[in-house]
Amino acid sequence: xxxxxxxxxxxxxxxxxxxxxxxxxxxxxxxxxxxxxxxxxxxxxxxxxxxxxxxxxxxxxxxxxxxxxxxxxxxxxxxxxxxxxxxxxxxxxxxxxxxxxxxxxxxxxxxxxxxxxxxxxxxxxxxxxxxxxxxxxxxxxxxxxxxxxxxxxxxxxxxxxxxxxxxxxxxxxxxxxxxxxxxxxxxxxxxxxxxxxxxxxxxxxxxxxxxxxxxxxxxxxxxxxxxxxxxxxxxxxxxxxxxxxxxxxxxxxxxxxxxxxxxxxxxxxxxxxxxxxxxxxxxxxxxxxxxxxxxxxxxxxxxxxxxxxxxx
Length: 312
What we know:
Blueprint: E1 3-9, H1 16-26, E2 32-38, H2 45-55, E3 59-63, H3 70-80, E4 85-88, H4 99-110, E5 114-118, H5 126-142, E6 155-158, H6 159-165, H7 175-182, E7 186-190, H8 205-218, H9 222-250, H10 258-290, H11 305-311
Parallel strand pairs: 1-2, 1-4, 2-3, 5-7
Antiparallel strand pairs: 4-6, 5-6
């Protein structure tokens, strides 16, 4: 199987059928499959997907018992995809399915593990654009993502990276975070972006906050280390100013008023508390990362004399 296309489906009974038809047309000369994952849709999406899977031999359908969220649905699809490359595309038709071939060509020509799409002109609502900007800014510092890389939901992933992503068994997957734990060999290519033809975006304030907290807390020790640094700086400032005031008072050069002493005590104590909590959080963070279920390293290639003899 050359290519798998994973589509998380949520309330898209009017768009998923035409999307599959377009995929079947533009992928005529490719050995590919489609993995539909219904994420607890409230409309007739499940029945539509069932009919599509029954009518097309290269379409498999999975339905979740409730709405688990986009990333959980994508992870379900990745676990059932068999292709050497796996494309992830939304069900809203804003990304033309023909662009999958553009991602595939870029991955093969550049030998990339992952290829992200980006758009010359995004057709999302301003609120979703704002949320995307916030998450991309956060991931630049927490995941080590390149500044010029846009973490689009429309992307293509090599088989070996998909297998490593599927090792994750926790309840809070963040696909891009899992990708950057595995590889930095990432490319980007421009593709068209269209306006929605049906319905409206499911991107809400609640989902934005949940995603932001998941990225901020679940995939990096950066927040803990930030508070450790802040605590260390406050404590250092308190010690330096306290030493200066003590020397000045002993030498009868200054006599600081009471409110200055109170402020100094608050700053020093706060810095010491943050420093202590940061060190404690570092230990807890290490334990969290250790029990995340991901391996400590990922091999790109395995070659030895013994493995060569086994192949023969």
